Amino acid sequence: MTAALRLAGIVHRFGATVALDGAALEVRPGEVHALLGENGAGKSTLLGILGGLLVPASGTMEVGGAHYAPRSPRDARDRGIAFIHQELSLFPHLTVAENVLMGAEPSRRGLWDRAEASRLTRDVLAEFGHPEIDPDATVGRLPIGARQVVEICRAIAARARVVLMDEPTSSLPRGDVDRLFATIGRLSAAGVAVVYISHFLEETRAVASAFTVLRDGRTVGTGTLSSVTNDALIALMVGRTVGELFPRREGRHSDAVALEVAGLAAPGLLEASFTLRRGEVLGVFGLMGSGRTEMVRALFGLARPAAGSLAVGERERPLEAPPGERLADGLGYLSEDRKGEGLALPLSVADNVTVTRLASCSHRGVLDPALQRRQSAERANELHVRMRDPDQPVRTLSGGNQQKVAFARLVHQEADVLLLDEPTRGVDVGSKAQIYEAVARAADAGKAVLMVSSYLPELLGVCDRLAVMSRGRLGPARPVAAWTPQTVLEAAIGT
Amino acid sequence: MRSEWRHRLVRLGPFLGLLLVVAFFALASGAPERYLSANNLRVVLAQTVIVAIGAIGMTLVIVGGGIDLAVGSTIALTGVLCALALREGWAPSLAVLASILTGGLVGLVSALAITRLRVVPFIATLGMLGVARGTAKWLASQTTVNAPGTWVNDLAVTFPPVPWMVFAPGVWITLALALLMAFVLRRTVFGRRVFALGSSEAAARACGIAIDRLKLAIYGVAGLFTGLAGVMQMSRLRQGDPTVAAGTELDVIAAVVIGGGSLNGGEGSILGSMVGALVMAFLRNGSQQMGWPTYVQEILIGVIIVVAVAVDRWRHAQGDGE
């Protein structure tokens, strides 16, 4: 049988970063194929190349046995390839029908045929089990779950032969996930090949039959899912056994409270209460949109809290305070959005590392560049940042090294409480291990760490205790040993 | 329900603003019957024509997520060109056509800089602002170009050549073009793609829309309107003046923004922009009637632009909370 899709030797670089280094993928018609790998392994890059968003440096691609080299998403679409993105790519100002049919509009002599568009869209929505969504509603006013439905309907409407799905369930409520799986089943039965990226192995097993594992831009394994165990898959993804990735912890934390949060509420966050002790790593697991990021932002003064109380050490602190005051309280913050708010990309490593505590390398308000360089080099070395020198712009570093620079800033700041939001997002495996080590080192030195993540294995591997955020509410923190991946997912999805 | 109400109120916003301005000057002038007379209305509408035609094109550009700062100098360039062509003895229709097409060409060149050289619209059109102004002065040999009397001179006059027209021909042309472009923006595939581009360029690309070609079309068509605005400018002055219309782009952008256009793209309407142009015209006219010096007008218009955008930001912030 001819493969629906065949890729070999795909190489792609982003500046200094090699995202793909000889990736291969083969998918049969009607097959649901899981593309697995760590953050930063190159999964999304590979889908981007398939979808015509990126042009690879080298490699060969075939669709249905014929040569395929898309220069644009339009080429991909013309060859029957539809892409459902991780970050929703919708037009908030336009209607559902316009969103579903944009690029393939029903028209007569250039006039948009509204009646036909509404009818087509209503059919597709009914097919996907969402007849209640109005084709003429404005997408920007729909709830987030419904928006994703719109995005999936776009692929269904395009009658694609290959559908690429990049974490399509990350913002869907449970009922919609089941509906999505049923639709994937129908697509597959109709001979459509589906390439599926997900963080959740359990979910992957429920929907996919075959798998390909990427690691550091290379294909390191492929086969049928029923023939491998989860541990074997994780070992393939990580490149070493799970035990080697995570640092050994001394695990003796004191009873001294570092951060006490009670009844915290903020936009997107209904209620969060927890106690963080010195020397402890407390993990918070949550799906996208669960309120996990909102909680950290409210804690650090980046979002306005609506209710609650906050004590740092033993001292009660005002609930509303700007980030500058939180910094003075000894809180440190690592943003999930490295490029947008975590780092100043055009500035040097030295500037980025020292910016939260410039007093350490200045005299009476005048910066001492030599001292700044020396201090930042020390911090960067502790975290094994690969760079030429501290004057190098952060922009020129790879994703993993950028993230280590962001972490080095917290170390330099000498923060007592580390608020880490997705500290290993988009980072290669080696850098991940180094960040985990740094987290462990900080905790063993008596700092308190709050680690928010949607990547369960790292939370189970690094944390002492774990709490789950679901629909804006933070559940109770329990020792990591008391959780299994299954119980965490159940708590995260809620009922 | 409340959000539905607010939505309606927001759509009415520009109209309320217009009513407010008209009512204020009608009362403040102490002679409402003079301010609201047919004659004064004629004056205001004739004064609006240039900004309104420019605003039709600018609506297209702004809805598509762009900006065009070269409008004022392109008006000067095409006005000079029209006057030169008439002086050389071209048929008036040919001279007008050439001016309009030149406007389109200027827009295309800006769009080429945006799509090929990957320069942001603000900078690309800022560059074009200088290039077009310089070219206008060069063509006109740094002086005004007198045009012989033809029907082109009657396009934007306050009192139409034939009384049954009531308003200047330019006013009717503006109205017809506004209706046409409103239809194009709302009902054609091209129009919806312009909204899509402004709403999310990444999503538009992912939908297989040829972004670069669409941008060429947007700036090209908008340029045609600017070219026509240049003809109207020439008609009002009865000569081509290479120094005219400096800063008109700001009036045009203000008209679109007052009319509900968002500089982030994806929002705006021709109707709103036309109301916005009227707000600007009534403001200027009212200030003149009150005998206020021009600097007061300038300050007032500056304040109103900022207030209009602040209101826009405010309602967006409200919308996010829903």
Description of the structure:
The complex is a heterodimer of chains A (495) and B (322). Chain A has 495 residues and is of the alpha/beta class. In chain A, 35% of the residues lie in helices and 26% in strands. Chain B is mostly helical and 322 residues long. Chain B has one domain (45-320): Orthogonal Bundle (ABC transporter involved in vitamin B12 uptake, BtuC), CATH 1.10.3470. Chain B contains 13 helices and two strands. In chain B, strands 1-2 form a two-stranded antiparallel sheet. The mean pLDDT of chain B is 89. At the A-B interface, helix 2 and strand 8 of A face helix 8 and helix 9 of B.
Keywords, please?
heterodimer; A: 495 residues; alpha/beta; Rossmann fold; 2 domains; seven-stranded mixed beta sheet; six-stranded mixed beta sheet; 18 helices; B: 322 residues; mainly alpha; ABC transporter involved in vitamin B12 uptake, BtuC; 13 helices; 74% helix
Write the layout of secondary structure elements.
The complex is a heterodimer of chains A (495) and B (322).
Chain A (H helix, E strand, L loop, with lengths): L4 E10 L2 E11 L4 E5 L6 H8 L7 E6 L2 E2 L5 H6 L2 E4 L11 H6 L5 E2 L2 E2 L1 H14 L16 H14 L4 E5 L7 H16 L3 E5 L3 H7 L2 E6 L2 E7 L5 H9 L3 H4 L11 E10 L2 E9 L3 E6 L5 H8 L7 E6 L2 E3 L5 H7 L1 E4 L3 H5 L6 H6 L7 E2 L2 E2 L1 H14 L16 H15 L3 E5 L7 H16 L3 E6 L2 H7 L2 E6 L2 E2 L3 E2 L5 H9 L2
Parallel strand pairs in A: 3-10, 3-11, 6-9, 9-10, 15-22, 15-23, 18-21, 21-22
Antiparallel strand pairs in A: 1-2, 1-4, 4-5, 7-8, 11-12, 13-14, 13-16, 16-17, 19-20, 23-24, 23-25
Helix pairs in contact in A: 4-5, 14-15, 15-16
Chain B lengths: L1 H27 L3 H4 L2 H26 L7 H17 L4 H24 L5 H19 L5 E2 L22 H19 L1 H11 L1 H6 L4 H27 L1 E2 L7 H11 L11 H20 L4 H27 L2
Antiparallel strand pairs in B: 1-2
Helix pairs in contact in B: 1-12, 3-7, 3-8, 3-10, 3-11, 3-12, 4-5, 4-6, 4-10, 5-6, 5-10, 7-8, 11-12, 12-13
